[in-house]
Amino acid sequence: MVGVSLRIRKCHFVQLLATCLVLSTVMVCWEELDNRVVSHVKSYSFRYLINSFTYINKSLTIPHKQARSFSDFHYLLDHPDKCANQDVLLLLFVKSSPKNIERRNAIRSTWGNESYIQNTLGVTVRVLFALGAPPTRENEPLWSRQSGVGFQEQLVEEDLLHGDLIQKDFVDSFYNLTLKLILQFHWVHSHCAHARFFMTADDDIFVHMPNLVKYLQGKSARGVTDFWVGRVHRGAPPVRSKYSKYYVAFETYPWLSYPDYTAGAAYVVSGDVAAKIYQATLALNASIHIDDVFMGICASVVGLSPQEHPYFAGEGKAPYHPCIYDQMLTSHSHVDDIYDLWKAATDPRVKQETSGWFGRLYCAVVRVSLLCRPSFVGTYPCKAALW
């Protein structure tokens, strides 16, 4: 009898120990579970069941004078006549850091070469770089601690050579990206409102300019309006982990879901949309530092919804293959390989290899094998294979 009682007590002890272990594991993992699973469940429920951001928009609306504080910075470099008296198909702003001169030069020599676009594609595309000011001495990072000519002086010299830097005097940092977005839409409104399309992109994006021009020409011929296209995020939840650079405090944005938005890496809007977004920035609190989310908030205010195009990149690089180049619009995370990719993607043999019934069938099979693998994540969705 004593042995039975002892075994029961041991069994209870093991059960208690196991319960404590499970609870400890749950407590340790709860924050990660909440960030990755619970927050998404809440967000999608908010997005698809409630599906209204009207009161969010109202709560973020502020007096115009207060909203102007997010745009009233002085220009350090400007080219107000860049679009003057020209039929501009596309104005393309590249968000760039002052230190990234090599990236800017690579873009100027490849997909952002205005002379190539004009002479080869027969349209006018204007490419500009949006920058803030280099950090001050008190908080400057190691990359800007140089002897001799300062970073701003280098930027002035670069701009004298190329004439394509648009810079205001807010500090250039990740946490000022929304200010950089506002800079772009205000510059478009003031100096290039007649452009048929406006695009914003990161400086590590590759743009297949021949494909993009062809795509936009087709949209322009149909007189498209309310056009906003890119990689769409629907029902995305705010990140509440303070360890993430995407962290947004409840005080800044207390709701469970963001309005739909396109990934800030690259997206395109029509000229009428650019005008509407400009108007929205005149009355919204822009303290949220995630620029693509702020774009979504602005669009929600003026009643716009984004459109998905599978060949606008998500995270990561597109597969290197002619059948991908044939459809590619943008690809992400390109720095060192941009010259080689430009040469390969615009090679005339790409169109030769992918045209005709056999080429189309071959490429459909190749794209399925490349984009629909379970291990492939990020750049293009599986549905792009049959686009």
Automatic annotation (TrEMBL):
Keyword Flavoprotein set for record: no
Keyword Membrane (UniProt): yes
Regions crossing the membrane: none
Cellular location(s): Golgi apparatus membrane
Chemical reaction(s) catalysed: a beta-D-Gal-(1->4)-beta-D-Glc-(1<->1)-Cer(d18:1(4E)) + UDP-N-acetyl-alpha-D-glucosamine = a beta-D-GlcNAc-(1->3)-beta-D-Gal-(1->4)-beta-D-Glc-(1<->1)-Cer(d18:1(4E)) + UDP + H(+); a neolactoside nLc4Cer(d18:1(4E)) + UDP-N-acetyl-alpha-D-glucosamine = a neolactoside IV(3)-beta-GlcNAc-nLc4Cer(d18:1(4E)) + UDP + H(+)
Stored InterPro entries: Glyco_trans_31
Top-level enzyme category: transferase
EC number: 2.4.1.-
A Pfam family per the record: Galactosyl_T
Membrane topology annotation: Single-pass type II membrane protein
Molecular function (Gene Ontology), one example: glycosyltransferase activity
GO cellular component: Golgi membrane
Pathway in which this enzyme or protein is active: Protein modification; protein glycosylation
Keywords: Glycoprotein, Glycosyltransferase, Golgi apparatus, Membrane, Signal-anchor, Transferase, Transmembrane, Transmembrane helix
GO biological process, one term: protein O-linked glycosylation
Family: Belongs to the glycosyltransferase 31 family.
Protein name in UniProt: Hexosyltransferase
Record organism: Oryzias latipes
